[in-house]
Amino acid sequence: MSKTVITSDKAPAAIGTYSQAIKAGNTVYMSGQIPLDPVSMELVEGFEAQTVQVFENLKAVAEAAGGSFKDIVKLNIFLTDLSHFAKVNEIMGRYFEQPYPARAAIGVAALPRGSQVEMDAILVIE
Questions:
Q1: Of 40, 53, 59, 122, which residue is least crowded by CB atoms under 10 Å?
Q2: InterPro entries this protein is in (predicted)?
């Protein structure tokens, strides 16, 4: 099976030794996205704005892979403050319809660049 690197200029460029996503067969493994504005490469301010930016970054990479949020089968959410969990659910509802992907929400001590939220995902594109 071959693997293909997926990139989108509508999402932040990788800031380390990783690809935005890798497609292997019909499965796409998206790297974690933090709320960097893809143009300025600066962190957006405020939890809600950060969460929206992460979803927009994931959306851009999914589209570059030929997919969409309906193709996400697994979503991982990393939060520095689990009290934001209800807000994440609310915002996620703007981007996803049933059937929802499998999901984990994990509290972490810190994220890159001082972000409050990071997400990664797995898509299966048929």
A1: 40
A2: RidA, RidA_CS, RutC-like_sf, YjgF/YER057c/UK114
